[in-house]
C-alpha cells in the first residue's frame, strides 16, 4: 500500500477516535468545562499534560533544530524539561490546594485586586494567542505535505476537529483526547527512532545508540564521526556550541521558568483530586515527556549523520527519490553554484549549495532511512496529534480567561452556571476562528514570537505566583508593579531587537550579551526586584489574605476546585 | 501560637528545606554540569559521550525526572508525619 493511503487510514482512524472520545465526555457544567470535573487520575493527567505540552514544535521541529545547532540545541532540551521541576516543587501542589479554575483566579484572589486579575488575564491572552497560531499552522503544514491538500484546507479541517472536542467537551473532552493523542504521538516518534538506531548502531535504544559505535565495523563512535564530518565541512564541532556561555545560561533559565509559568500547563494540575495527586502527576508528566525529549537529540544525531553521508559531494543526478520529493515541498533546495553537478553542503555561505529546513529532519527521516510506508504515515498522524492537543489546551485557557475571569469575575458576577458555560463555548469558538485565521494568514512575526512566549510567561506569571506562595507579606502593589514592569520590559526588548522598534539594534547592542530569547530571565529578575522594592513602601496585605497563604501551604483539606 | 499553627510552621520549614536541597541538585546538573562546567567535564568520556555534552542533552533530563519522584516520596512521608495525608 502507498504512503498516501496509509496516511489517510491512520489520520482518519485517529481523528475518528478523538471525536468519539469528545462525544463520550461532553461537559455538563462549568466545572466539567474548566477542570474536567476535578476527578482526573494522576496518570491520565500526566499523559494529558505531556500531550498538552508537546506541541508541533517539540514533535516536528525540535530534533531538526538540535540537528543543526548541535550542543547549542541543549537549551531547548534542558529548558523545556527543567521547568517541570520548578512546576512540581514550587507551583503545582499549592495552586491545586488553592482550588480555583484559572491562573488569573489565583492572582486576583491572592492579590485581592481586580487590577491584578485583569493584568493576569491580559498576560494569559498574549502568551496563549502567540502560541496557538503556530499550532494551527503546524496542522496545515502536515496536511499539505502528507495528504497533498492545500495548506488552508488543512488548517480548516484542523479547526473543525479542535472546535468539535474543545467546544463540546471543554477540559473534560480535551483531557481524554489528549490521553489518546499522547499515545499516538509517542508511538509515532519512537518507532522510526528505534528503527534508525538499529540501522546505524545496532542498539535498539536510541538514547544509548547515540553514544555507541557505528554499525559499519569501523569501531568509530557515532558522535566522534559527526564531530569529524562537521568540522570537515567547516561547521562547528557538533558537541560544542557557538553561542556565548551567558546566552546559553540565560536562554535555558528563561525557557525553564517560562515553562513553569505557562497557563495552559498550570491549569492541568487543577483537574486532579488531591494535592498529593498534583505532585505525582507532575512527575508522571515529566517522565512521559522525557521519553521524547531524550530521544530527540539521538534522532538529531542519526539524521544529521545520515544526511551528510547521503548528500555531501555526491552527484545531484544520483540522489534518491526522497530528495526530489522534498525538493518539491521547498524544504530542500539545491543550487549548483559551481556547476559541477555535485552537492556541496558546507558552512561557507558563498559556497554552500544546499539549504535544508529544520523540519525535514523528523518529517523525512523515515524516508531517508528507507523505512516502510506505514512508519512514514505514522509520523503524519503523530505530528497532527501533537499540534491538535496543544492547540486545544491553549484554546481552553483563552476561553476560560474570557468567560470566567472577565465575564463572571469582573463584568457580571451573577451569571448562572449554564449561561457561563455557553459564554465559555462561544469564547472557544471565537478563539478557534482567530487562531485559524492566523494559521491561514500567518503574520510574519508568529515564528519569531512563539519562542518569546516563554520569555513573556517568565517575566509576568512566575514571580507573581512564587511570591504569592512563598512570601506571605507580598502585597498587591508589589505584585502588580512587578508583573507590569516584567512584561513591558520583555515586550520592549523583543520588539526592539526582533522588529527594530525603539531604534532597533544588532547583536552587538544586546544587553549583557543576552539574546531576546534569553531576556525573559532578566525581565523575571526585574519583576522580583520591583515587587520587593514596592512592597517596602506600601501596606501589608490584609489578615484574611495572609490566612489564605497559610492555608495553601498545607496539603490536607484541598476539596474540589470551585469557581466561587 | 496555637498548637495547630506550630505544626503548620514546622511542616512548612521542613518542606522549604527539601526544596532547597532538591533545587540545588536541579541547578548543579543543568546549569552546572551542562553549561558552566561543560568544557571541563567534556574531557571525561563515557562510551561515545563527552560527559558535559551528555549532561546537557541526556543526563540532566534523567535527573529532573528522578528529582520530582524523590520529592513526591519525601512529601508523602512528611504529610504522614504531620497528619496532613488524606
From TrEMBL, chain A:
Bilayer-spanning residue ranges: 6-24, 77-95, 116-134, 146-167, 179-200, 248-270, 282-303, 371-398, 419-440, 446-471, 478-499, 519-538
Domain of life of the source: Bacteria
A biological process (GO) of this protein is: carboxylic acid transport
Topological type in the membrane: Multi-pass membrane protein
Principal localisation:
membrane
Q: Which InterPro entries match?
A: Na/Glc_symporter_sf, Na/solute_symporter, Na/solute_symporter_CS, Na/solute_symporter_VC_2705, Sodium:Solute_Symporter
Name a single GO cellular component. plasma membrane
Q: Where can this protein be found?
A: Membrane
This protein's record includes keyword Transmembrane helix:
yes
- GO terms, molecular function: transmembrane transporter activity
| Keyword annotations | Cell membrane, Membrane, Transmembrane, Transmembrane helix, Transport
Q: Which family does it belong to?
A: Belongs to the sodium:solute symporter (SSF) (TC 2.A.21) family.
Query: Under what name is this protein listed?
Result: Cation/acetate symporter
- List the source organism: Maribacter arcticus
UniProtKB/TrEMBL annotation, chain B:
Q: Mind telling me which Pfam families this protein's record contains?
A: DUF4212
For this entry, the protein name equals: Putative solute:sodium symporter small subunit
Q: Which UniProt keywords apply?
A: Membrane, Transmembrane, Transmembrane helix
High-level lineage: Bacteria, Pseudomonadati, Bacteroidota, Flavobacteriia, Flavobacteriales
Please tell me whether the keyword Membrane is annotated for this protein.
yes
Natural source organism: Maribacter arcticus
From the UniProt annotation, give the residues forming the signal peptide. Answer: none
Where's the Sodium symporter small subunit domain? 9-84
Q: Which residues cross the membrane?
A: 16-37, 52-72
Amino acid at each position: 500500500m502507498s504512503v498516501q493511503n496509509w496516511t489517510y487510514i491512520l489520520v482518519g482512524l485517529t481523528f475518528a477516535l478523538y471525536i468519539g472520545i469528545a462525544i463520550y465526555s461532553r461537559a455538563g457544567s462549568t466545572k466539567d468545562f474548566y477542570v474536567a470535573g476535578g476527578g482526573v487520575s494522576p496518570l491520565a493527567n500526566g499523559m494529558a499534560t505531556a500531550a498538552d505540552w508537546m506541541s508541533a514544535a517539540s514533535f516536528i521541529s525540535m530534533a531538526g533544530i538540535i540537528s543543526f545547532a548541535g550542543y547549542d540545541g541543549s537549551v531547548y532540551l534542558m529548558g523545556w524539561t527543567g521547568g517541570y521541576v520548578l512546576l512540581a516543587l514550587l507551583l503545582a501542589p499549592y495552586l491545586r490546594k488553592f482550588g480555583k479554575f484559572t491562573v488569573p483566579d489565583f492572582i486576583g484572589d491572592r492579590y485581592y485586586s481586580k487590577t491584578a486579575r485583569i493584568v493576569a488575564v491580559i498576560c494569559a491572552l498574549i502568551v496563549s494567542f502567540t502560541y496557538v497560531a503556530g499550532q494551527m499552522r503546524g496542522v496545515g503544514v502536515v496536511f499539505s505535505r502528507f495528504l497533498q491538500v492545500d495548506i488552508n484546507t488543512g488548517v480548516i479541517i484542523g479547526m473543525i476537529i479542535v472546535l468539535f472536542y474543545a467546544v463540546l467537551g471543554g477540559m473534560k473532552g480535551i483531557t481524554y483526547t489528549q490521553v489518546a493523542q499522547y499515545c499516538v504521538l509517542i508511538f509515532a516518534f519512537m518507532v522510526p527512532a528505534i528503527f534508525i538506531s538499529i540501522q546505524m548502531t545496532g542498539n535498539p535504544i536510541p538514547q544509548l545508540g547515540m553514544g555507541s559505535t557505528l554499525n559499519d565495523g569501523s569501531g568509530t563512535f557515532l558522535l566522534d564521526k559527526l564531530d569529524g564530518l562537521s568540522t570537515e565541512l567547516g561547521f562547528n564541532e557538533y558537541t560544542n556550541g557557538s553561542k556565548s556561555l551567558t546566552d546559553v545560561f540565560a536562554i535555558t533559565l528563561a525557557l525553564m521558568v517560562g515553562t513553569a509559568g505557562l497557563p495552559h500547563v498550570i491549569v492541568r494540575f487543577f483537574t486532579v483530586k488531591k494535592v498529593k495527586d498534583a505532585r505525582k502527576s507532575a512527575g508522571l508528566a515529566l517522565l512521559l515527556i522525557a521519553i521524547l525529549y531524550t530521544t530527540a537529540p539521538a534522532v538529531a544525531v542519526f539524521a544529521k549523520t545520515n544526511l551528510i553521508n547521503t548528500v555531501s559531494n555526491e552527484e545531484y543526478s544520483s540522489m534518491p527519490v526522497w530528495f526530489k520529493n522534498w525538493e518539491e515541498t521547498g524544504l530542500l533546495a539545491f543550487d549548483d553554484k559551481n556547476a559541477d553537478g555535485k552537492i556541496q553542503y558546507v558552512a561557507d555561505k558563498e559556497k554552500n549549495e544546499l539549504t535544508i529546513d529544520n523540519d525535514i529532519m523528523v518529517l523525512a527521516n523515515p524516508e531517508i532511512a528507507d523505512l516502510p510506508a506505514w512508519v512514514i504515515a505514522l509520523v503524519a498522524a503523530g505530528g497532527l496529534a501533537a499540534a491538535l492537543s496543544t492547540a486545544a489546551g491553549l484554546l481552553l485557557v483563552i476561553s476560560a480567561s474570557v468567560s470566567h475571569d472577565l465575564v463572571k469575575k469582573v463584568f457580571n458576577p451573577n451569571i448562572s452556571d449554564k449561561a457561563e458555560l455557553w459564554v465559555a463555548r462561544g469564547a472557544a469558538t471565537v478563539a478557534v476562528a482567530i487562531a485559524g485565521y492566523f494559521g491561514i494568514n500567518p503574520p510574519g512575526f508568529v515564528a519569531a514570537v512563539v519562542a518569546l512566549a516563554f520569555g513573556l510567561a517568565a517575566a509576568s506569571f512566575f514571580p507573581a505566583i512564587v511570591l504569592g506562595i512563598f512570601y506571605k507579606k507580598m502585597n498587591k502593589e508589589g505584585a502588580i508593579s512587578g508583573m507590569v514592569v516584567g512584561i513591558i520590559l520583555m515586550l520592549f526588548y523583543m520588539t526592539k531587537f526582533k522588529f527594530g522598534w525603539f531604534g532597533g539594534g544588532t547583536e552587538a547592542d544586546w544587553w549583557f550579551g543576552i539574546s531576546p530569547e534569553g531576556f525573559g530571565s532578566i525581565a523575571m529578575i526585574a519583576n522580583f526586584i520591583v515587587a520587593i522594592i514596592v512592597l517596602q513602601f506600601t501596606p501589608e496585605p490584609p489578615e484574611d489574605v495572609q490566612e489564605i497563604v497559610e492555608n495553601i501551604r498545607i496539603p490536607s483539606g484541598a476539596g474540589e476546585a470551585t469557581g466561587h | 501560637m496555637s498548637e495547630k499553627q506550630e505544626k503548620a510552621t514546622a511542616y512548612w520549614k521542613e518542606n522549604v528545606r527539601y526544596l532547597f536541597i532538591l533545587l540545588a541538585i536541579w541547578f548543579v546538573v543543568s546549569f552546572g554540569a551542562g553549561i558552566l562546567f561543560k568544557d571541563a567535564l567534556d574531557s571525561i568520556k563515557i562510551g561515545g559521550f563527552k560527559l558535559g555534552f551528555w549532561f546537557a542533552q541526556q543526563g540532566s533530563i534523567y535527573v529532573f525526572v528522578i528529582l520530582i519522584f524523590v520529592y513526591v516520596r519525601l512529601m508523602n512521608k512528611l504529610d504522614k508525619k504531620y497528619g496532613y495525608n488524606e
